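At this stage, I wrote out one protein's amino acid sequence and its backbone structure tokens, and that material follows here:
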Amino acid sequence: MTDISPLPWRKSSYSNGSGGNCIEMVELESGGTAVRDSKDPGGPVIGVSHRAWADFVAAVRNRRLG
């Protein structure tokens, strides 16, 4: 298993200083994307393909979820 804790995690642009509901993501060398809860960086991590992450972000931006 690869230790991903030292990688350059990026916080959602919707994040604020008040501890809102936020996620962090990092692009992996394998070509995938790892996603975690920014309030619990030591907690669970979800790994998805880069294509799946790009599709998810596009769906959120275009309000196609819900």
Q: What stands out?
A: Residues 20-61 form one domain. The radius of gyration is 12 Å. The beta strands are 10-11, 23-27, 32-37, 45-49. The helical segments are 50-61.
